[in-house]
Write a structure and sequence with these properties.
By secondary structure, the protein is an alpha+beta fold. The protein is 24% helix and 34% strand. It has 6 helices and 12 strands. Strands 2, 3, 4, 5, 6, 7, 8 and 9 form an 8-stranded mixed β-sheet that branches. Strands 1, 10, 11 and 12 form a 4-stranded antiparallel β-sheet that branches. The longest helix has 13 residues. It starts with 5 loop residues before the first helix and ends with a helix.
Length: 222
């Protein structure tokens, strides 16, 4: 299994340190498909698009029984992405010296994670979210098991974590049909721990998992 040992941690560090060749295919494999038109969202902005930058932290807790990925469930009141599963993150503020500083500040605001308790081991490819024109940079950070996370109730409804083993298991990956704006869409999700992770968060998760050798059925079909 993926119990936490030095080998797995070393493998994770190596995997995150290098770019993923087929990142676009992996990311777009998680864009909902409009079943009437066959269209799905691109994860690359059109040339000349005025993007809004954002950054997220993909927190991985290293525990003896295995590595776990930490997610937040956003409160329904938030204007953007309400009731959605996310990674801690958001838009830069003037005091942020870098996108990494943004990711760490937002993680501290949302889940009380002190920046010096995170070891950032790399970043994933930028994720473009067309409706909001956000171009999101995901940073992968390691947390030791004893790190306590406390949610900020005005931003985050719940914090939960899912083992990498569960995320990578074949039964976690599903395609469901949801109605969006009254039209049926096929939505690839990770169904784990009673949660359905979809959209950009699922795509970034897949970008991490693909580096560790994960293949979804959909990516192999064509």
């Amino acid at each position: 299994g993926m119990g936490h040992d030095g080998n797995f941690e070393a493998r994770l560090r190596r995997a995150v340190a290098k770019p993923l060749d087929r990142w676009r295919e992996v990311y777009e494999g998680f864009s909902p498909v409009d079943l009437r038109t066959g269209e799905r969202r691109s994860r690359i902005p059109e040339p000349g698009t005025d993007c809004r930058r954002a950054a997220v932290l993909v927190p991985i807790v290293l525990a003896p029984e295995g590595a776990r990925v930490v997610y937040t469930l956003r409160t329904g009141e938030l204007r953007d992405h309400a009731g959605q599963i996310s990674f801690p993150g958001g838009s830069p503020e003037p005091q942020d010296r870098s996108l990494l500083a943004t990711a760490l500040r937002e993680a501290e605001e949302e889940v009380d994670l002190e920046p010096d308790l995170v070891e950032v081991i790399g970043e994933l490819e930028d994720m473009y979210i067309p409706p909001s024109r956000f171009l999101v940079r995901p940073f992968v950070g390691l947390l030791r098991e004893e790190t306590g996370l406390v949610l900020a109730p005005e931003e985050v409804e719940a914090i939960f974590s899912v083992s990498l083993e569960e995320l990578m298991s074949p039964e976690a990956f599903k395609k469901v049909v949801w109605k969006r704006e009254g039209r049926p869409h096929e939505v690839p999700i990770f169904a784990v721990g009673g949660h359905e992770i979809w959209g950009a968060t699922a795509a970034m998760t897949a970008g991490l998992l693909a580096r560790l050798g994960w293949e979804s059925g959909s990516l192999m079909e064509g």
